[in-house]
Design brief:
By secondary structure, the protein is of the alpha/beta class. Helices cover about 30% and strands about 30% of the residues. Strands 3, 4, 5, 6, 11, 15, 16 and 17 form an eight-stranded mixed sheet that branches. The protein has a four-stranded antiparallel sheet with strand order 9-8-7-10, with no helix packed on it.
């Protein structure tokens, strides 16, 4: 998965394909919230501003900034409250697009390949955790006596196609799924490692991570026996990451319990966890919608509609270096107790 997504020049996030957009005709593969409507960034900006004040910092760090749309929305809304906006992105091709999109803020926006050893500020990550490589685990047989295997990639006998290959492993998901059926799922070592790294390096600040996913009890539910790994291409979803490698996105839903526990165990405070709908409404989305023309309002409403992005997408917030506080985005509808 890492090679398919990030190999320089060949991987999906390292090549020149359009990726982000609202319509397949643009050559894009999927749409993220900032491309769907600029009100996403406007509402998020209210939370970022509050977090900057609560932590006494003046820098924003964005992971995986994609097209640069969210950065532009936040910079526009926050104005001089942000002294420096740093984008951490591994993709050279995406960095070039971001630099073009953010030329208006030249001098205030910087790019980095990695986080510094210590830093302060507010971290934002929209659809970042889902793009971190996962490990696939396959249980052959039921919960009683079933054998877990790690699922990897090999080539066919002729050597001309990729194929799956399972081997017994000591790895286990954090919860044993019930039921007699075979079970395929994911574990998120790299995502958990990212949370631990954040804990080690964030001296003072807060992080807001927005992505699609579930708490552990839902993630490893018996009915989710086919796992969550999927691909996105031309605004279509498929389940074959071994075909057209490098030409489509590969992604897995986020186990938010694992992310929160990794952060907490490494010393961060878990400040809140809720749905994107609750978060954006708490941040003033409804009042923003009232000022929009009808067509734009209908598009922006998808950010909070249950059958669109509102329920599947979640927001996890963690903090460091200041007393724990409740950010506005979690004032109502907080689901931390469900992690």
């Amino acid at each position: 998965m890492e090679m398919a997504l990030y190999t320089p020049g060949l991987g999906y996030y390292a090549n020149e394909s359009p990726k982000f957009g609202t319509l397949p005709g643009s050559g894009s593969d999927f749409v993220t919230a900032p491309e769907l409507s600029p009100v996403f960034g406007q509402a998020l900006a209210a939370q970022v501003r509050e977090a900057l004040d609560a932590t006494g910092t003046d820098e924003v760090w964005e992971f995986g900034a994609g097209s640069g749309a969210l950065a532009a929305q936040l910079l526009q809304a926050l104005g001089d409250r942000v002294r420096r906006y740093t984008i951490v992105d591994l993709s050279g091709s995406l960095r070039r697009r971001q630099q073009a999109a953010l030329a208006e803020w030249e001098g205030r926006v910087a790019w980095a390949d990695r986080l510094p050893e210590r830093f302060e500020g507010v971290v934002v990550g929209n659809e970042v955790l889902d793009a971190m490589p996962v490990q696939l685990l396959a249980r052959h047989g039921g919960a009683a006596g079933g054998v877990w295997h790690e699922r990897g990639v090999t080539t066919t006998a002729a050597g001309d196609h990729f194929a799956w290959a399972d081997r017994p492993t000591a790895l286990r998901p954090p919860a044993e799924p019930d039921g007699p059926q075979d079970y395929l799922t994911e574990i998120h070592a790299q995502g958990e490692g990212f949370m631990r790294m954040l804990a080690q390096r964030l001296a003072r600040g807060a992080a807001f991570l927005i992505d699609y996913g579930f708490p552990e009890a839902e993630y490893y539910h018996p009915q989710r026996h086919m796992g969550t790994l999927v691909c996105h291409q031309a605004h279509q979803v498929d389940s074959d990451p071994l075909a057209e490698v490098g030409a489509k996105d590969i992604t897995a839903h986020v186990n938010f319990t694992a992310m929160a526990l990794a952060a907490q165990d490494a010393g961060l405070d878990v400040l809140g966890y809720t749905t994107q709908a609750h978060f954006l409404i708490n941040c003033g989305l409804l009042s923003i919608l009232e000022r929009l023309p009808q067509a734009e309002r209908a598009q922006a409403a998808k950010l909070m509609m249950e059958h669109e992005m509102g329920e599947l997408f979640k927001v996890l917030a963690v903090g460091a270096g200041v007393p724990a506080w409740t950010p506005t985005g979690f004032a109502r509808g907080d689901r931390t107790h469900r992690l």
